[in-house]
Fold each of these.
Amino acid sequence: MIKDNSVYLKHILESIIHIEQFLEEIDHSEVIGEAANQLNKTFLTQHPDIPWENIIGMRHKLIHDYFEVKMELVWDTCTIDLPRLKPQLESLIQ
């Protein structure tokens, strides 16, 4: 049985929505980098286990070199690095 075209169109639309949501995450990555850039320099040196320079550098890359950004790097940052960073930051806040 052949599926109705609307089924495939829905798959395409859902994928577009997921891509849009992913792109919104890039904006959040920019906020993360900007906020890290505003942290007190003494605080940054007291917590060398957190890759502050990389976090700030990602923001600069996203803002200034957007068309040269490797989406695989953004993906890895969102799926690997940020989940590792989250508990470190939570412990600093507590």
Amino acid sequence: MSSAPPAPPRSDRPPSFNKERDEFIQTFFNKGARFTQELLRENELLNQQIGELEADNAAMRLQIKSDQAIRELLTKITELEAEKAQLLS
């Protein structure tokens, strides 16, 4: 008994099937690549928007602190004017 290596399986598929399969796979990967590029572009835009919103937020926080400080100063002025009026009367 001689032990010959098994013959590779023979494909009964026509060559056009292999071509169609290869085209499908190529199309599938091309669509995936385009989709990935779109996601990367959108991610970049969203990161830019986040940066802009964070800058706006920081500016608004400074404005709120400034407004609060002005309110506190106006309240203090009113209190001091009332104290002055009381001392002068």
